[in-house]
Specification:
Layout (H helix, E strand, L loop, with lengths): L7 H6 L5 H5 L24 H7 L3 E3 L8 E3 L2 H9 L11 H9 L3 E4 L8 E4 L1 H9 L11 H8 L4 E4 L8 E4 L1 H6 L11 H8 L4 E4 L8 E4 L1 H9 L13 H9 L3 E4 L8 E4 L1 H7 L39
Antiparallel strand pairs: 1-2, 3-4, 5-6, 7-8, 9-10
């Protein structure tokens, strides 16, 4: 017994054959007590006073993502501190503990297309996911596909935006999950960040007299910027209706209007389109339905017995 320090000899020499008697609850972090309760982890005795000031009865729940607090006894806090912790007993809060007891391990389909195997989503993983606000299982590979993933390496793939020289990472997992074993067309991180800030725009049709608009998508705007252009000066394009009309037109050779001139000039499709911008599209040609092979000829069709003669018809 140290003079002036009552009870210290007991703390320094105390051991327990059953750590659960110290933790007092099966919701603990699973420590095993193989070393004295207080020993070399605490340094000299001069720091014991500071140590006791740092321990408290309220500690965070041990489940990642949970913001609840749990009541921890002094013995539990001392035990966690003695084993390299922060003075926490490693307990679940009541809500997490109830969820954990009610949950069961689930078999979840492999994320690889066509694979019929499953992987185990443990109830503790479900609890951590639930604490973060997610109750659906994550996309994950089965053990067999996970082994296949280990044999692959991440690949750098060029960005899909024209003019961009950056790359994006096609991970080993994505390669295993791929159906055709080909990398998809994707944006690099830099272009994706820029793309996320853009919005689709409606710009006017370039044909004079046309009041329609066309959609200028975010990816088109991004490519426009990569060419060194500005969004304030969008491209001049036709709306879908004018474009359909334009594709039906062909250059025409028109005689000169000057009397006595035998030359001609070319009337271009776009000029024709502007001249007829408000005219509707011509109707599409429809092929006549073929006559039925077994239909009787008109001259051979039998006349109705009771039909009046043409001259007697009113």
């Amino acid at each position: 017994m140290l003079p002036g320090v009552p009870g210290v000899l007991f703390i320094l020499s105390y051991t327990s054959p059953n750590p659960r008697t110290i933790l007092g609850d099966p919701r603990d972090s699973g420590y095993t007590l193989e070393t004295p309760f207080v020993g070399t982890n605490f340094g000299n005795l001069g720091s014991l006073g500071d140590f006791f000031k740092q321990t408290g009865t309220e500690q965070p729940c041990r489940v990642r993502g949970c913001k609840n607090m749990v009541t921890v006894s002094q013995e539990q806090a001392l035990f966690g501190k003695a084993h390299g912790g922060r003075g926490e007993g490693g307990k679940m809060c009541e809500a997490c503990w109830n969820f954990y007891q009610a949950a069961q391990d689930k078999q979840v389909p492999c994320s690889k297309a066509g694979c019929k195997n499953t992987w185990t989503w443990t109830r503790f993983q479900q609890l951590e996911s639930h604490a973060r606000g997610f109750d659906t299982p994550p996309r994950r590979l089965c053990p067999a596909c996970a082994e296949e993933e280990k044999g692959k390496k991440d690949i750098q793939v060029p960005c899909r935006v024209k003019g961009c020289k950056n790359t994006w990472t096609w991970t080993a997992k994505m390669q295993v999950e791929s159906k055709d074993k080909r990398p998809p067309r994707r944006l690099c991180p830099e272009c994706f960040a820029q793309w996320s800030k853009l919005q689709d725009q409606e710009i006017p049709c370039r044909v004079k007299g046309c009041k329609n608009t066309l959609s200028w998508t975010r990816i088109q705007q991004l490519e426009w910027l990569k060419e060194g252009r500005k969004l304030e000066n969008p491209p001049k394009r036709m709306c879908p209706t004018c474009l359909e009309k334009f594709n039906l037109l062909k250059p025409l050779e028109v005689p000169c209007r000057i009397s006595g001139c035998s030359h001609v000039w070319t009337w271009l499709p776009f000029e024709q389109l502007e001249a007829a911008v408000n005219l509707p599209l011509p109707p599409k040609e429809t092929k006549p339905a073929p006559a039925a092979e077994n239909a009787p000829a008109a001259e051979n069709a039998p006349a109705a017995e009771n039909a009046p003669a043409a001259e007697n018809a009113p």
